[in-house]
Amino acid sequence: MRYAYLGPAGTFTEAALLGVAGAREAERVPVSSVPVALAAVRSGEVDAAMVPIENSVEGGVTVTLDAVATGTELRIVREALVPVRFVLVAPPGTALSDVRTVSTHSHAWAQVRGWMEAHLPGAGYVPASSTAAAALALLPGRAGEAPGFDAAVCSPVVVQQHPELEVLAQDIGDNRGAVTRFVLVAPPDAPLPPRTGADRTTLVIPLWEDRAGALMEILEQFATRGVNLSRIESRPTGNYLGEYFFSVDVDGHIHDARVADALVGLRRVCPSTRFLGSYPRADRKPAAVADHHSDGAFRDAQAWVAGLQGLGPRGARPVGEAPPGTA
Q: Hey, which CATH number is domain 192-293, 3.30.70.260, 3.90.550.10, 3.20.20.140, 3.30.70.100?
């Protein structure tokens, strides 16, 4: 197995990947960005890629939401939750008072902004492709030229791997309960993970028509079947101003009757809906399902309608399908 991940070594993404069974022994390929990681999956260069998709502080990781919404379809086969802790590092001999510019990933910067304003007011921010990349650029002899910043925000794992870095401050995150959710993305023919009772399904739903009630029509497909949406975010398609799609997580598995029935309704009103996968929740939290939305309730209702159609429960066809030979 070959896995791509947002590198270099020491990123939170690599920490998420190392939680996958067999990943420590597999070949791990660090890449420069989420689109590059997903392109490697699409081309067959790697078997799967671990990428960030959601943060408890910043919300959805937009670069991932956009990259999985277009191009060749992909499948999410599992997720991982990684607690986020940050340290401020610099080259040896640097003092906190020497720091004028700080580099890190944009999501990390958003999570330490309060600390920076309190301890390094006026410090400039230099974006980096990852937290680890920013820190490694500070290593003596690592960069061919001066990195262009004085310090970096990164994971404590980077310091464990490179103790020559000077730690100026520890645990500098503004929210100590911060967590990032990562997903393992595979080709579309990857086996569908079995239903566990504590699952998540991810969808991409284009807003097919810009009119009053269009979003309500989408939401009704879930609400009337008792399917909870744990995340819904709108993203521009990039085609023209005002054209959007929705990135959605729902509680449940496509093999749950209520979820399957919701997808049938959704596909009718929005044929370009994209199914990104059903997979076990990392927190193992089961969905709360009312009795009248259980699999048994759906089976009983379908059998009742089939009986009314004169088919009987054993010969039941999908609701609304006429017997052969009828108009």
A: 3.30.70.260
How far, CA to CA in Å, does 167 sit from each of 121, 170, 174, 176, 292?
19, 7, 18, 19, 56
Is it the case that residue 44 has pLDDT exceeding 90?
yes
Q: How far apart are the first and last CA of the chain?
A: 52
Question: Where does 1-83+178-190 sit in CATH, by number?
Answer: 3.40.190.10
Q: Yes or no: say if 33 and 169 are a contact pair by the CB < 8 Å rule.
A: no
In this prediction, residue 107 carries a pLDDT of 85
Q: What angle do CA 114, 116, 122 make, to 5 degrees?
A: 120
Please, what's the b/e burial string for 36-63 (b: 16 or more CB within 10 A of its CB; e: otherwise)?
bbbbbbbeeebbbbbbbbbbeebebbbb
Peptide bond into 8 cis (omega under 30): yes
CATH architecture of 87-170: 3-Layer(aba) Sandwich (3.40)
Q: Span 199-223, mean pLDDT?
A: 89
Q: Give the tens place of pLDDT for each residue, 246-262.
A: 999 999 999 999 999 99
**Rg (alpha carbons) of the chain, rounded to whole number:** 24
Q: 327 or 241, which is more confident?
A: 241
Name the nearest CA neighbour of 86 among 57, 64, 109, 53: 109
Decide if 176 contacts 107 (C-beta within 8 A).
no
Tell me the per-residue pLDDT of 9-23, one tens digit each, with 9 for 90 and over. Answer: 888 899 999 999 999
- CATH 3.40.190.10 in the chain: give the residue spans: 1-83+178-190, 87-170
List 83's β-bridge partners, or say none: 179
Tell me which residue of 108, 84, 79 sits closest to 19, measured CA to CA.
79
